Amino acid sequence: MELYFYPETLLIENFKSIRRLELKLRPGVNLLVGPNASGKTNILEAIYSFHKALFPPGVAQNSILATLAYVLEGVRFVLHGRYVKTLGVWP
C-alpha cells in the first residue's frame, strides 16, 4: 500500500527576505509566480532547509520559525521547527 501526502499550509518567519509568510497549498502542483527578487527561491530554500534542518550561513539574528502542515490519508499533521542561531540546531 502506498501512502500519499501533500503539504497543506506553510508558515515561514524570519528566513532571509521573508519576515512572515503563510501559504495555503493544494494537492497537486502549486506554482510560485512573481517578479525577480520577490522571494520565490527563498520559499523553496525554506522548505528544503526545514526538511534538512540545515540553514545557510548568515542566518538572521532572530530565530527562524517554520511550520508545515501535511495531510496524509485524510489525517492532518503539523510540524513545527524553530532554528535558534545560538544553538545552531532545531530543538
From TrEMBL:
Pfam families: AAA_15 (PF13175). Gene3D superfamilies: P-loop containing nucleotide triphosphate hydrolases. Residues 10-52 form the Endonuclease GajA/Old nuclease/RecF-like AAA domain. SUPFAM superfamilies: P-loop containing nucleoside triphosphate hydrolases. GO terms for biological process: DNA synthesis involved in DNA repair; double-strand break repair. This is AAA family ATPase. The lineage of its organism: Archaea, Thermoproteota, Thermoprotei, Thermoproteales, Thermoproteaceae.
